[in-house]
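User: Before I run my own analysis I want an independent prediction to cross-check against. Here's the chain; please return only the structure tokens and, at the end, one sentence I can use as a sanity check.
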Amino acid sequence: QVQLVESGGGLVQAGGSLRLSCAASGSFFIINMMNWYRQAPGKQRELVAGITRDGRTNYADSAKGRFTISGDNAKNTVHLQMSSLTPEDTAVYYCNAGARDLRGWGDYWGQGTQVTVSS
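Assistant: Structure tokens:
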């Protein structure tokens, strides 16, 4: 089992920055990928950015050039540095991880952290 705890959300003005963090804990052997998703009211959950264990990253088009994902394998943490935020970035941001435990590979989610960008 993997528990994911997000932090760093909050209220920020348009043009501002926020840094989200996610820490994984529990009984698992390895995490091979960690992602950030977001879900705005009335919209489907969408991938924002992801990072593999070997450091490869991918970003949604909306995040490219503004957001940076980084990870620390030793600490099982992932961060999302967000800048030039706009009201369209307002959403609940969820941490997601692919991990292997005694039962095999699984997909795990955090509870989410609210990001609100005011205009």
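Sanity check: The chain has a mean pLDDT of 96.
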